[in-house]
Amino acid sequence: MQLEFEFTLPTGYLDREDNLHRKGIMRRSRAIDEIEPLKDPKVQENPAYSTIVILARTITQLGALEEITPEIVEALFADDLNYLHQFYRQINGLEG
What we know:
Radius of gyration: 13 Å
Strand order of the largest sheet: 1-2-3
Structural class: alpha+beta
Number of strands: 3
């Protein structure tokens, strides 16, 4: 069973030093990845924010970044966020 999947963002994440990060790896989600974000105050305030937290938990690599945080996912361009959300649904068998 494949657990990790490579992806390339349509636009890419631009960090503070103006480095563009497009290639990454996302792992398949576990139940805890869907449950744990429910404890986050931002998710309790706005349930849609759970997508941000879940993606930050399941993206294991993005370019040269050492850690993927919700703040990084928040800073993605809209087309990249949409791409990652669809990619997450695809690799976890949630489409259909």
